[in-house]
């Protein structure tokens, strides 16, 4: 007969073991991926000129970071993405709040929002560049545009799905519509807003990279296009690897913010 | 003098496919301190009446007067208790309780003392900093009761507030609410489909018809029953005959429909 503590200990041990197995597999896949890539490239299973190899990418990255050029590209793209992400998210929340505040306005706007949402925002790229000039502004606008409409729609529908009985309680105290919003609708929608943040991280990257494809002279998106044009696929791959890493970090940071918000939302 | 008066009140719900008449020509009045129950099948418009009195909806016809003033213009506070507690999960207990004063921008510092005292009175000591999720259903409904009472409402509207609770909790809460309302001399309207609850708690029972909702019959609860708290009222010899009479009334109406 085992004691309660022993049972608990063996449960913990089981959990730890499971976690370890998963982690080992995750590393295994990562290493296998790069190893296979390297081998395939060296043995000419794939054309090294087109697909490069991890070792070339690594040396290229080291060199470009050493002379500082990569860092400036990276920081430009990161800056644009974060700004596009923040403006897009806040703009979406603001627009959704406006729609909620004026019921008639939301009815009038409905078909336009449907069209804007259905439309691929990146197709607006050339127009934005003409309007805002070829620079940061256009690229940030792209990052903003890709995320703002879907944010508006998600948050507006979340506002409308809040249990009306909370507002009923408030109205019985004589609350105005704005007070209902502040005390019930907005805080009840917090979880949706937080999950929207995660989606928007990905969307802003799409907007910014496409924006850089179209116009810029700097940034990771620019490096991809430039590498493509001069047939330097090591550069293209290096930029892709960096984008993957940065996007993952940003996602993790947002996840951290989410956890913090849930803990401190009270 | 009557305190609250409903004068030929009707209410329609409109949609693009037509309209439903939820209430037809409802007239009744309450004296101050009186406890009235609305009893009837579901869909008879009981909750609609409460929403109109609470000023959340406006009736399509007729007048609702509180102390001879139109209810929409009246500044008298009205407390509304729903079937579920609807405590705000992101606010702690004290903030939930002080929601009404907050809406009216009243300084809440002094009221906080009153709130803690009231919470104690309903048997909730030391919960003010907890969040609703850590309380049981009965406790939460008691918090909701305090939230309703803190603003010193002139009328209390109770929309089946005990129906989601287990039987024992329900009886205990009935006793508590009955006692509090009597102590503070509050006027109250209780919506319920529980005949026993209606008899045990109220002074008068309005039995309602459905489709459209109208008042079918009024029963006076004998004074002997009224003097007892709800739990004891159920044991009073006059309780069962009244129960049977109301049962018959409701049953016959159901028979009409078939």
TrEMBL record, chain A:
Belongs to the binding-protein-dependent transport system permease family. It is a multi-pass membrane protein. The chain crosses the membrane at residues 21-45, 78-100, 112-133, 139-159, 197-215, 235-254. CDD domains: TM_PBP2 (cd06261). This is ABC transporter permease. Gene3D superfamilies: MetI-like. Residues 70-254 form the ABC transmembrane type-1 domain. Coiled coil: none annotated. Keywords: Cell membrane, Membrane, Transmembrane, Transmembrane helix, Transport. It comes from the Bacteria. It is found in: Cell membrane. InterPro entries: MetI-like, MetI-like_sf. It comes from Oceanobacillus caeni.
């Amino acid at each position: 007969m085992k004691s309660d503590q022993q049972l608990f200990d063996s449960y913990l041990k089981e959990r730890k073991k499971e976690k370890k197995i998963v982690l080992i597999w995750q590393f295994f896949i990562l290493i296998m991926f790069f190893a296979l890539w390297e081998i395939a490239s060296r043995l000419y299973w794939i054309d090294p000129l087109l697909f490069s190899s991890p070792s070339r990418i690594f040396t290229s990255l080291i060199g470009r970071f050493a002379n500082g050029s990569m860092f400036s590209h990276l920081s430009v793209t990161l800056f644009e993405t974060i700004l596009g992400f923040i403006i897009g998210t806040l703009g979406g929340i603001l627009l959704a709040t406006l729609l909620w505040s004026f019921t008639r306005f939301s009815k009038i706007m409905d078909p336009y929002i449907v069209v804007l949402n259905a439309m691929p925002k990146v197709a607006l790229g050339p127009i934005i560049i003409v309007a805002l000039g070829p620079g940061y502004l256009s690229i940030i606008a792209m990052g903003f545009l890709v995320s703002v409409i879907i944010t508006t729609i998600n948050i507006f529908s979340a506002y409308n799905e809040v249990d009306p009985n909370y507002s009923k309680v408030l109205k019985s105290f004589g609350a105005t519509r704005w007070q209902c919003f502040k005390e019930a609708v907005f805080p009840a929608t917090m979880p949706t807003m937080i999950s929207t943040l995660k989606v928007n991280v990905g969307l802003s990257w799409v907007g910014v990279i496409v924006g850089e494809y179209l116009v810029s002279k700097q940034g990771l998106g620019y490096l991809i296009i430039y590498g493509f044009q001069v047939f330097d696929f090591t550069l293209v791959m290096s930029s892709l690897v960096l984008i993957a890493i940065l996007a993952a970090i940003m996602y993790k940071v947002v996840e951290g913010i989410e956890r913090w918000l849930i803990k401190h939302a009270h | 003098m009557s305190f609250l008066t409903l004068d030929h009140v009707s209410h329609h719900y409109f949609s693009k496919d037509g309209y439903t008449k939820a209430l037809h020509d409802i007239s009744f009045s309450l004296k101050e301190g009186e406890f009235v129950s609305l009893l009837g099948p579901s869909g008879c418009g009981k909750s609609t009446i409460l929403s109109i009195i609470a000023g959340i909806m406006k009736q399509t016809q007729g007048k609702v007067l509180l102390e001879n003033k139109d209810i929409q213009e009246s500044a008298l506070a009205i407390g509304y208790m729903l079937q579920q507690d609807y405590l705000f999960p992101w606010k702690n207990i004290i903030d939930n309780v002080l929601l009404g004063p907050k809406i009216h921008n009243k300084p809440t510092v002094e009221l906080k003392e009153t709130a803690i005292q009231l919470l104690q009175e309903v048997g909730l000591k030391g919960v003010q900093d907890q969040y609703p999720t850590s309380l049981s259903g009965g406790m939460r409904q008691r918090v909701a009761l305090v939230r309703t009472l803190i603003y010193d409402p002139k009328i209390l509207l109770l929309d089946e507030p005990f129906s989601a609770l287990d039987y024992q909790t329900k009886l205990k809460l009935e006793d508590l609410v009955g006692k509090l309302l009597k102590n503070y001399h509050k006027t109250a309207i209780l919506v319920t489909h529980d005949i026993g609850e209606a008899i045990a708690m109220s002074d008068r029972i309005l039995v309602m018809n459905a489709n459209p909702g109208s008042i079918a019959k009024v029963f006076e609860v004998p004074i002997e029953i009224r003097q007892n708290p709800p739990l004891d009222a159920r044991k009073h010899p006059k309780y069962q005959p009244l129960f049977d009479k109301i049962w018959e009334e409701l049953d016959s109406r159901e028979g009409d429909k078939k």
